[in-house]
Amino acid sequence: xxxxxxxxxxxxxxxxxxxxxxxxxxxxxxxxxxxxxxxxxxxxxxxxxxxxxxxxxxxxxxxxxxxxxxxxxxxxxxxxxxxxxxxxxxxxxxxxxxxxxxxxxxxxxxxxxxxxxxxxxxxxxxxxxxxxxxxxxxxxxxxxxxxxxxxxxxxxxxxxxxxxxxxxxxxxxxxxxxxxxxxxxxxxxxxxxxxxxxxxxxxxxxxxxxxxxxxxxxxxxxxxxxxxxxxxxxxxxxxxxxxxxxxxxxxxxxxxxxxxxxxxxxxxxxxxxxxxxxxxxxxxxxxxxxxxxxxxxxxxxxxxxxxxxxxxxxxxxxxxxxxxxxxxxxxxxxxxxxxxxxxxxxxxxxxxxxxxxxxxxxxxxxxxxxxxxxxxxxxxxxxxxxxxxxxxxxxxxxxxxxxxxx
Length: 406
Ligand SMILES: Cc1cc2nc3c(=O)[nH]c(=O)nc-3n(C[C@H](O)[C@H](O)[C@H](O)COP(=O)(O)OP(=O)(O)OC[C@H]3O[C@@H](n4cnc5c(N)ncnc54)[C@H](O)[C@@H]3O)c2cc1C
What we know:
β11 and β12 form a beta hairpin. The termini are far apart. The chain has helices spanning 15-26, 52-58, 96-109, 155-160, 183-190, 233-242, 246-249, 294-313, 319-347, 352-361, 364-374, 380-405; strands at residues 2-5, 8-11, 31-34, 49-51, 67-69, 71-76, 82-85, 91-93, 113-115, 120-126, 129-134, 139-143, 145-148, 171-180, 193-198, 206-212, 216-224, 254-264, 272-273, 276-278. The radius of gyration is 22 Å and the shape is globular. It is of the alpha/beta class. It contains twelve helices and 20 strands. The structure holds flavin-adenine dinucleotide (FAD). Residues 11-17, 34-37, 40, 44-49, 119-120, 149-151, 155, 174, 176, 220, 261, 263, 280-282, 286, 291-295, 297 line the site of flavin-adenine dinucleotide (FAD). Residues 11-17, 34-37, 40, 44-49, 119-120, 149-151, 155, 174, 176, 220, 261, 263, 280-282, 286, 291-295, 297 line the site of flavin-adenine dinucleotide.
């Protein structure tokens, strides 16, 4: 069987994999990306909101934007939407196909060899070299270093045994509809805002979103898998057709596509092994409270590329050397991911949430903090410090109200 040799093989052409590959190639490393789909990003269910921070980190041009976003509207427990507007853009609405195609082109320009329609089905390490088998190809691919950037159900993680499968308590389940609406109606109803909906009527342990694109809306619901006992389909139907505010915002729209997907909602270490790195969703680089993963994947991908290239230059891809990758991503994005899990457990917990969040929904200071977090303007730690007194105040009031109504 023919063999193709590279210094590094990256599995998966999502933002994590393409950023890692680009960083490696820019440092003179011979790198291949193996992607199972024909068009990077096209099949990936995603809301497609990229924060301004993610744009800067990934050097993503404004020209990819379907719409520029500069405001967030939040509704809690069927209360009217309340707006938090920003002076400057807070991020962009894009499609994953546009992002994937752009990053792929850029990676190739930097010397990365991207192989589409290449699904990795086996990887084994033998004599200091990874031997990677791709479905229906007459060759194997070999490299001294392997990067698993193949998403939440990572084949690389499973085949190499680097991490156990995510448990139901570490995964979110999502459903997202594409709703067709004219660009003029979208502009009139949403302006430059995107919308978030919270409350137990939306879903048991999560939230709903409406992200306006050029000529359609991405309407989704996400919930912690372990807390979800029935399919999210009925929640989505209610949200689109029966929710007093959302149904008005979506009036006249036509659902053209529905997708379902998992998303990691956890904080995990152990993203490196002997000659092996996991990046992006494969490593759990996604916020447990917002489900935002694009920026974290981009950031972790870049770090993986830098460290991988450095280790190859020293001819040492041992776990001991690659450990620096985990140290660096922990320093850059680890705090957000850790606090995301804590906040998730605090805010989406049990029946008290309703009365607490009701009170908070009326408090603009809290709304502003929440919006700052969603758009990446505030670190999670900072949010906790600012929100803790407000939270305690509303918790006491909320519990008081709940007691009074018993
Ligand atoms: C419904 C939904 C909405 C979301 N909305 C947002 C949002 O608005 N903003 C945000 O920041 N984040 C959002 N996220 C999270 C975000 O999509 C992910 O965190 C991000 O895509 C992770 O990037 P990645 O490169 O790690 O993985 P992915 O984007 O999943 O890329 C993995 C790639 O690996 C490929 N692959 C998988 N297995 C193999 C294999 N065996 N061989 C070869 N290739 C393989 C896949 O085809 C895919 O291209 C959302 C997630 C979901 C599910």
